[in-house]
């Protein structure tokens, strides 16, 4: 049931693409055919090999084996420039825009042709390029100001600039890598409309995603990848597909193919009620965050959800003392810690699994021993004053953590960088749990981890909860939130716009809160938070 | 319910999960088995062997690259090599001179390495050394106290002088984000001119009898000669003590851990409660203090007075000393000794083979160059061994230096 | 005081700022492309030396300039290999350039001339007066103090600004410095651009050195650049990596130098040695009174490797 007559050559045909990164077999003999003028979905979980495949298509990495055909002609791209030349445009997951440049400068950079001497002498005609950009933008309804500096644009607008950039280069085929990952639902909807319009104009689109609704909404055909191999394909544009029952059946089947198993069993958790541990009132940084009230009790996992950049990092930084609060209070077990240094807060029982492990969680160049001892260098048994820090005790700690959390390889002296991401994270989680935290802030603790490490981290968090600690879980992964959280709060523009308990979890409502399509950051629905304890001494 | 408020941990005790604490205790009481000990020793020997290999290869490559210039000067290689070894090791006197040269190189090398461990490029050790020497020389010449106290005051003053020279770069880095490379270099030039002025004919500290120098420090207050008949002075003890002290500070104290953590990842340091601004100040001030100590020891041990050109560029060669030792304080005694051999051998080589002393600077530069490209070389050789396949682990893991450089932190 | 502030003070300000301006332009190009270059001092020294050697060997000072360009190509090429191709640490690589530049030039003087320290005189670039311009009113006499070489140096400021800020090549270069990954995705050959920028910085710094050795003077002396390569770096930082402001800062350094020189001639009261520290102190004060934090191109200092 192809959209095109079968004789017409496919826009893209990949045959037998194979790629290894060391021990990881990222792509296993992948075949993929994309009909021109269609939206083709590439569905798979994180690490399934989607991005690698598309980077190979775009000439950014080179396949170990396999063939690429564009419009029926075999090609080999040695660089992304050659792929661009062949009419393929790619919109990366991480934007490849330059914040310090204007939209127009981003569009024209690297495009000019002609001799080096000419390009060194001739003035770039920015006004003319901007006019052209405006025309292109108007034609497809982008609504982008070509003179705006990219760093001032919203994430959604930058996504559009990326697409504009690809079209500017004459791309007839667009590859979009998780384009809605950082967008709010209305922004995503705008993007879908734009993609529909592009398809109508004849552009071929490959959409990398792991979001089912998106795939179902947009794609004509979908290919499912798992563990680097194609595990299935499905047609989504036939007449039968109009029937909801059929759609649901196909959707369930696709999910099954994508994850290769049924929905994971959730460990049964008895609701417990612990004492109030974290009590935040009127917290604000005086800029874009807050004022915000939040309570977390013992034996409770409270998830903080919201579109990225709506105050999650600010909340964590304010709680950790890494950002200055201008007003409000933060009480841990009744101690107001608002004026305390990060060090003192850690001592008071706050632990923190950092959102970006490489930026703030670990030191890649240091050994496991040094990484395990971050935050453990004051006080017995590790140090006996400012002039002695015991290596032996730190080594024992490291070995204990390695054993308890099954960190592989089990060697304490090797540099952190020689561990896989999952094992690094296991050590970090072990380190933070070893502080016997009253409150653990676990910011996206499983981002980028494989299935095994993810469940190990979740188990550790649930154990901590069982032990009576409070856990705050800022997460972008709603599946994770549904799996382990007792409650959730939704952040938008630095304020809590909705609260739910596990029994009430409902994705549509959360989506409306996240997107702000339900009123302004106002009281929100009846607050199931903080029932009775108000006797905390402050 | 909230009446059960858990107490904050006792002062002086780390906040630690009791289960982990018990596990630690259990491991603590388990004696180290012979097998485990053997394995540990084997690991250490292997690391040590690898480091020694890197050391020798870096040095060998640098010398090889310097060779064409030796040949250019028309020197006979055999004669040159002989002159070099005779000049640096050939007699008691030569050996003592080499050790004398080693003292400032070792201390200044420690100064450079200390800042590098904190991820900071203190290129201003030369200036700190000059300030330290000047302060020590002035105190020694002007103060009238007992010799032992004077020695102590001179050394402390030298440290303070060096730290003072590092103060402005430290504050600018910590609070304004100005890259320390630019500021420490500026201080080098300021130090040179301030020193010239201090002992210029109209300068405040110039000796009446000797132009461009301060008055002599009383003989009893100088660092005593510890090898009869040579110039080798007790500054050697100060240098070795500084070396052990720096090692201890970096690897066996909480402060050192924080500094190394900041060097490896400032973000992680900040998140774990380390004040990066304060650590930046501490690191640069300690580093500057060491630089100042190098100058003071040189003034007190060798010349007995400060004069304007008393440093033979030790602060610059110290960069090579520190990098050749891969920033290890203990290995630095080897690299400092090697550069000291170059310095003392150069005198003989100049006399016998007509080779300029400046070749030492060339070798320093080449050593620094080879250290800079070390990660690439390790990466490449690893690739060749693996049959040109891409590496499995991040190649940056091969880089041993804590230099998350470049960014203005 | 009136005899102190004269036309020749302004003229010497211009003369003294040229050997800071040229390496500043080089450093700026280099850092805007994403490579930290604290090796300008070593590059200047090798340029000053190369110029003197070629002028000495050929007897033609113009070929001396060619020698400076050649040594700039070599020192810039070395830094490019170390810091761009082999992705070595950029600060350490350029420190090596400084040490090698200072050591090698000093070591080669006795090998070539048989004497230590300072070379004998070599043919210097003749002062070519400007045609016509000195007849202009008011600024005419000032222009009369300048030679063609000075004018060419100042023209380079405009040329670098034009290429960097107004042309496609400049946009590519700046893109590499702001985000190498983004530039790569746009099909820009990041490695090639950076290598070119580093080599060009070597040539510009070397010309700055040659200005000292065969335009201002007619000899080479060990460490004759006196930290001007580092002043250039400070000017670039204080000018926030922009050509115009950095150029003005260089003029400020030139003025400080000129004042120190004239003070030496006119008065015995002031401590000359301290006056010579003036440009460096000025640089420190400038950096201390910086408005806002100093931040360069976003990707400067980060070696580029394709993911």
TrEMBL record, chain A:
Region feature Disordered, mapped onto this chain: 513-538
UniProt xrefs under Pfam families: ABC_tran
UniProt keyword list: ATP-binding, Nucleotide-binding, Repeat, Sugar transport, Transport
Designated name of the protein: Simple sugar transport system ATP-binding protein
Claim: Hydrolase is one of the keywords in the record: no
UniProt-listed InterPro entries: AAA+_ATPase, ABC_carbohydrate_import_ATPase, ABC_transporter-like_ATP-bd, ABC_transporter-like_CS, P-loop_NTPase
PANTHER family membership: CARBOHYDRATE TRANSPORT ATP-BINDING PROTEIN MG119-RELATED (PTHR43790), GALACTOFURANOSE TRANSPORTER ATP-BINDING PROTEIN YTFR (PTHR43790:SF9)
Species this chain originates from: Actibacterium naphthalenivorans
One MF annotation (Gene Ontology) recorded for this entry: ATP hydrolysis activity
Superkingdom of origin organism: Bacteria
PROSITE patterns linked to this entry: ABC_TRANSPORTER_1 (PS00211), ABC_TRANSPORTER_2 (PS50893)
Sequence ranges assigned to domain ABC transporter in this UniProt record: 12-252, 271-518
From TrEMBL, chain B:
Ranges where the record places region Disordered: 384-409
InterPro entries: ABC_transp_permease
Subcellular location field: Cell membrane
UniProt keyword terms in alphabetical order: Cell membrane, Membrane, Sugar transport, Transmembrane, Transmembrane helix, Transport
Transmembrane segments: 52-73, 93-116, 123-143, 149-172, 181-199, 232-250, 285-306, 318-339, 359-380
GO molecular function: transmembrane transporter activity
Keyword Cell membrane: yes
GO CC field: plasma membrane
Topological type in the membrane: Multi-pass membrane protein
Keyword Transport: yes
Identification of the protein by name: Simple sugar transport system permease protein
Organism: Actibacterium naphthalenivorans
From TrEMBL, chain C:
Entry's Gene Ontology cellular component terms: plasma membrane
Organism whose genome encodes this protein: Actibacterium naphthalenivorans
Keyword terms, alphabetized: Cell membrane, Membrane, Sugar transport, Transmembrane, Transmembrane helix, Transport
Topological category with respect to the lipid bilayer: Multi-pass membrane protein
Keyword Transmembrane in record: yes
Residue ranges of the TM segments: 6-26, 38-57, 63-85, 97-115, 135-164, 195-214, 277-296
Localization of this protein: Cell membrane
Protein name: Simple sugar transport system permease protein
Primary location recorded for the protein, binned into one broad class: membrane
Molecular function in Gene Ontology: transmembrane transporter activity
The keyword GTP-binding appears for this protein: no
InterPro entries: ABC_transp_permease
PANTHER family xrefs: GUANOSINE ABC TRANSPORTER PERMEASE PROTEIN NUPQ (PTHR43370:SF1), SUGAR ABC TRANSPORTER INTEGRAL MEMBRANE PROTEIN-RELATED (PTHR43370)
